Fold this sequence. Notes:
Radius of gyration: 20 Å
Keywords: DNA-binding, Phosphoprotein
Strand order of the largest sheet: 2-1-3-4-5-6
Helix content: 40-55%
Order of helices and strands: EHEHEHEHEHEHHHHH
Structural class: alpha/beta
Protein name: Response regulator transcription factor
Pfam family, one: GerE
Number of helices: 10
Domain Response regulatory: 3-119
Organism: Flavobacterium chungnamense
Distance between the termini: 43 Å
Number of strands: 6
Amino acid sequence: MITxxxxxxxxxxxxxxxSFLEYEExxxxxxxxxxxxxxIDLVRKKQPQIVLTDIRMPKCDGISATKxxxxxxxxxxxxAFSMFDQAEAIHQMKDAGVSGYIMKNSSLKKVLEAIRxxxxxxxxxxxxxxxxxxxxxxxxxxxxxxxxxxxxxxEGKTSQEIADILFIGKSTVDTHRKNILKKMNIQGKTDLIxxxxxxxxxx
Length: 203
């Protein structure tokens, strides 16, 4: 039996998930919480196998709650359930210890699939999330020069401007850009710029 706790500040959404899971014989919802502090207290009392939690909640957000829960109960699996698909939010939840991340516009069938996969010690990240989004900072290995170039790309500099700043050739900058694209599994210039803007302070 999979035991579950749901944390979400919109009660109607909790009610919808509970109603959907009610007919699943292998899942039992032990309780619900409308803010992060309630979630932590509930987990301490019930110690469920799985926690499905929103990120933005009153009193204590899902990131802080996840860190506390994983510190006290490392075996409890946590799935983020959020409307935010920004890379930073995904990184923060992944670094906090979640085993899954689902977008709120996903179907309830996908929520059910995620719960069952994570319960079997797997991981589940929404199809809408790219590989780059779920790669943690620690998993990205860039050279010192690549980090410098990525920062400058994030500041809106062109390849020629970067070459002038770093006193290297434009062709060298272009080569580094290609290497960064490959390492980050990014497909093109637009995605590289977006990634650089989001991550320019990380390196």
